[in-house]
Known about the structure:
Elements lengths: L1 H6 L17 H20 E9 L11 E4 L2 E11 L6 E8 L11 E5 L2 E3 L2 E3 L3 H4 L2 E5 L9 E5 L11 E8 L10 E4 L2 E12 L4 E9 L11 E5 L2 E6 L2 E6 L2 H6 L1 E5 L13 E6 L2 H5 L7 E7 L11 E4 L2 E8 L11 H4 L2 E7 L1 H4 L8 H13 L2 E9 L4 E8 L12 E2 L2 E4 L6 H17 L2 H20 L1 H23 L5 H29 L20
Amino acid sequence: MKKNASANPSATVSQTSPFSSVVWLIPLLALITGAWLLIQHVRSTGPEITLYTDNAEGIEVNNTVIKVLNVTVGRVTSIKLRDDEKGVELTAQLSADVKDLMRQDTQFWIVKPRIDQSGITGLNTLVSGAYIAFTPGHSDKTADTFQLADLPPVTAIGQSGLRLRLQSHSDKMLGAGSPVLYGDINVGQIESANFDPRERVVHYQIYINSPNEELIGRDVHFWLQTGLKIEASGGGIKIDSAPLPALISGAIAFAAPAQGKGAAVDNNTEFTLYNSRSELDNLPSERALYYVAFFRQSVRGLTVGAPVEYKGLNIGTVAEVPYFERNDSHQLFANGWVPVRIRLEPARMEVNASEQSHQVWQNQIQAAMNKGLVATLASDNLLTGSLYVELSDAPSGQAALRPQTLYRGDTVIGSRSGGLDALQNQLSDLLAKFNKLPLEQTVTELNGSLKELRSLLAQPQTRQLPQELNHTLRELQQTLQGVSPGSPLYGDVQSTLQNLDRTLQDAQPTLRTLKQQPNALIFSPSANDPIPKGVR
């Protein structure tokens, strides 16, 4: 039994560490790699933002990317309707590189094919699809919710300029992206345009590109410039065409007055936007003089802004037509006249002259009215029928219409008919004088004279007058034939004239001698003059 026991070997048990095997290195490396990838993912993943838009046209989950300066920095991860059902809510995941660019004034917009006044843009998206672009903001506050616009902003990254706000009471509204012009030069664009239905005012925000903000001052005026303007007046037909972008979409134009642009302005300064340049030019000055004229003739064709001229000089405009006082139009048919308010601008009368006060010009015009200055309506263009007011000196003896001296606080200037109406009045006066002529009596006397003439022509002696006249003419013809070149009388006259010519030629020496020595008929031409002898 000892032999059997020694023949069987004994086993020894030793404990081994579970981490001593190489197999465990694989999950450890996987864990380290996963942790590293997680850290890299966390480090590379930027903020998650929310975008609001009206619709999701052209936007797809995981396909629509977000770019800045044409570099992909994010992707749309989800699309859903907003809780208030007022649009679409987009969720996008951005990279960590743009984390510091998400500010309150960061602007997002959708890039897709578009045709507008600036041309054709976004053609590359026909193949790649629409994408979202943004421009970084400069605000101190961060944000993760933004509004997605349909149009790109006017300002580019790092671009400086000037933003202004304009208010317009016009019923026309230009769209975002329309140009801002200085003359015919594009110096900016409209960033936004909104209509306030309560105040009936259009609010614009425009951006002036640098360095064009140097053109802006407190006294600069803005106006709408739309389409093609054709103006027919007494000076002819004028066509004012804006640049092509302004013809398509309209534009906002501005200019500085003659005295200068004024002081510099800051961002978001508000200005008034006028409907047109003509409205701006017709704004009254501080020294404007107002008068009222009453016209009996038709005022059709006379509009607000029509010129007021004196001897061909434009010195003012028509302020209001008609200009009735309260309830005064009830007497329209009884009075038979229409009041018109005109405005005279002293600056237009100060041609190459220093500025005079309002009172000085008022006194001068009053003195001219005392001498007969009146207002008349004249035709500005026969094709369009437009009228203007002309100030002129009334002819002596012609009464002017001036029913009142003051009307609604303004001095009344006398008026009289002019133009075609004056010609019609003169023609009416001529016809009235013609009607006063004794035409019936004149016609009766003329008929009696014609009867006497007929009886005179019917007498035999009168009928013989043509025959006697023919006989007299034949005798005169025979007499003239007697003095023709071939007649004897003509030969005798010619012979006599020849003899007379020879006689004059023979007398020429004697006449010459008498001219030289008048005493040749008494003394001999060759003898010396006699010398008288004295008394011895």
